[in-house]
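Course assignment 3, question 2. Fill in each field.
Student: A.L.
Task: Predict the tertiary structure for the chain below.
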Amino acid sequence: MDRVILTKSQARKIILHAAGLASRAQFGKGKEAAYKVIDHLGFVQVDTNYVVERAHHHAIAARVPGYKFEWLEELQAEGRIYEFWTRDSGFMPMYDFRYSLPIHHSFSNKWKSLPQPEVNLMNRIIDRISREGPLRAKDFENDRVTKSSGWWDWRPSKVALERLHLTGKLLATRTKEFHKLYDLTENIIPGHIDKTMPSIEEFTRHLIFRSLKALGIAYLKEIAWNGRLVKPPLKSEMKKLVDAGEVCQIEIEGLKGPLYMLPSYKKKKVTITGDAFVLSPFDMLNVYRHRLRDFFGFDYQVECFVPEAKRKYGYFSLPILVGDTFVARMDSKSDRKQQTLTIHNLHAEPVKMTKGTMAKVCDAIQAFARFNECTGIAIKKSNDKALLKTFRETLRE
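Answer field:
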């Protein structure tokens, strides 16, 4: 086994290239580029937060200039992508569908001994959808007996729909209002797609290669998290792949390993263009917070999950990346009626920003406003007077 030692700078370039953030249009433009993003990353996370445009649209728009919201719906209608759970809910390329089957199996085992009334309800739902076609949760009667106790206290029919979804009897598309539209799985998955259950070894290898393709460099714990619903034998399978030369075990100066990457990066010269990106908290690059600290020196947490009194940067603070450095974070909200992006807090990180870097940040924020269908930008505060001045001068131009 060759010993591969990288600096953090080299590692960052590999990670950003794998994330599709080495340049603004790394995958090209148009709907086909949007598909290439999903195909390359293998998973684009769906999130319901609508303070700014939702995470799945945001992640693709960051990588595909001129992105249009309807492209995801069209790609689903064409049978090229589907939405399901791995570590979270997300869009995946349709040809990977068979690797969802172990997750279906895991949920089926979890719920194999349900009370008969719950089984009967699930059967009635399957029967109704098979007769009437795709339905939303709200299309079923309000069968709640007690008052709701919170966000996740679903009524029985919603619980049954989600169980059928997670066990693979139903899959879901989305309405324009982002509501799930449940349908029989066989109506969504094209007939030519392989539906054979992979062995645990096949699933594990798929998980490893998919994770490394999207992450570039990874600890075993990130790969394990991607497969947490199945819990595959990662250590033993990874050893086989390393011994066979199909995966490289690497060392990075200042970090405790082991770390892994694909062998292709040993020969590939990766360059970063220095473009600026406003990123979603749920972007593939940002999901594993320890990676941001280890490789980028960036301490980040999305604070919508933090009590208001303990928030430091704002409810939904978005990381801003320029080249291979996180230079700022922006807490903002899109007012769709007024078509205004309000920036509650533009917080500059303790890194030196040239005028050129500040100009790139301003351009990226303006592009983000347009993506959110906002024609105006209102900024309330910033901890960097020079950045704030540049931003306001840019807006006046």
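Instructor remarks: Residues 344 and 380 are 5 Å apart (CA to CA). The longest strand covers residues 325-335.
Grade: pending
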